[in-house]
Amino acid sequence: MRVLSGIQPTGRFHWGNYFGAIRQYIELQENEQAFYFIADLHALTTVHNKVDLQQYTLDAALDLLALGLKPEQATLFRQSDVPEVTELTWLLMTVTQMSLLEKCHAYKDKIARGLPADAGLFTYPVLMAADILAYDSDLVPVGQDQIQHIEVTRDLAQRFNHRFESEVFVLPQGKVLDSTAKVPGTDGEKMSKSYGNTIEIFQTPKKLRKKIMSIKTDSTPVEDPKDPEACAVFTLFKLFGDESEQAELANRYRAGGMGYGEAKQAVFDKASEHFAESFARRAELESNPGDVEDILQTGATAARKKAREVLNRAKEACGLSVR
Ligand code: ADP
Ligand code: TRP
């Protein structure tokens, strides 16, 4: 089975990205053939500065490798290093109904807020479909918000196959981890760069602690019992603590006498422990940026080989010349 996913380099990765997406990538590389890429072309719909895009892309590669992505097990590459995908996007565009794209949330939300949208944002799901279909992907691990795009991908694959009476594209399945599908941010809402409520994975202990201490809680006095299930701090603790640690902290919430500061400190301690190895690995990788570039280039070569094969199949099916 081939697993594929992409992640946009639009800023530094946060706990939502890790628990909602990256952790699944790392688990899946063990037993499946995995393709993971940094979606720099998609990022162009929001990042409009050359230096930022380059820095975020390098950071994305460093973060993924530091968090446990193994280049000998998974193919890691930059989306823009595989031009076959943009060519495939055009072919898919010809089977894409406008009404389908009008329903897609990124575009719809922007229009609803009265903001101008460009064709890049509008056709974003078609590029994503090409990303997925170009590698005959079977399984696409993503956060809940991306499931709509997987449905679009399946729709386009079916339309293309049907129109050209072929079996060019493999129909992919999305995969969401339900228990952690929505990681809350410091304001209790879904953690997201666009809401400014993120907790970044890699930052100095001092900054991390400050961020965790800023998580919004209610004003229940220290001595009163508290409801762990209604508290973002506890939700975050659950991501790191094992079952007995979760039960222990939940009991302390319910018993009263514990302030939110203590629960926050527990989150800080567990998170620091959880990511300690990754911090060390990142520091090492950072001192060898050439190695990271080599990994991305090797990945791109393997990815292009597969994408070329699928693109040729698609071109052939619709009557285009294949070189
Ligand atoms: P952001 O919302 O911060 O811009 P992205 O949209 O780039 O994050 O998301 C990258 C990946 O991380 C996607 O698969 C997305 O579903 C997942 N993800 C992002 N935020 C969360 C969250 N709070 N909880 C779970 N998964 C998330
Ligand atoms: N749109 C995805 C996101 O914002 C990133 C992405 C681009 C992607 N192409 C993909 C994810 C292909 C999975 C498969 O998170």
Fold topology:
Layout: E1 2-7, H1 15-28, E2 33-38, H2 40-43, H3 50-66, E3 74-78, H4 83-93, H5 98-102, H6 105-112, H7 119-122, H8 124-133, E4 139-141, H9 147-163, E5 173-175, H10 205-213, H11 232-240, H12 243-255, H13 260-286, H14 289-318
Parallel strand pairs: 1-2, 2-3, 4-5
Helix pairs in contact: 3-13, 4-8, 4-14, 8-9, 10-13, 11-13
The structure holds adenosine-5'-diphosphate and tryptophan.
Tryptophan binds next to β1 and α8.
What features would you describe in this structure?
The structure is a single chain. The chain is mainly α and 323 residues long. It has two domains: 2-182 and 288-318, Rossmann fold (3-Layer(aba) Sandwich); 203-274, Tyrosyl-Transfer RNA Synthetase. Helices cover 55% and strands 7% of the residues. The protein contains 14 helices and five strands. It has helices at residues 15-28, 40-43, 50-66, 83-93, 98-102, 105-112, 119-122, 124-133, 147-163, 205-213, 232-240, 243-255, 260-286, 289-318, and strands spanning 2-7, 33-38, 74-78, 139-141, 173-175. The strands form two sheets. It has a three-stranded parallel β-sheet with strand order 1-2-3. Helix 4 (83-93) packs parallel to helix 14 (289-318), helix 8 crosses helix 9 (147-163) and helix 11 crosses helix 13 (260-286). Bound molecules: adenosine-5'-diphosphate and tryptophan. Tryptophan is lined by residues 4-8, 39, 42, 128, 131-132, 140, 142, 146.
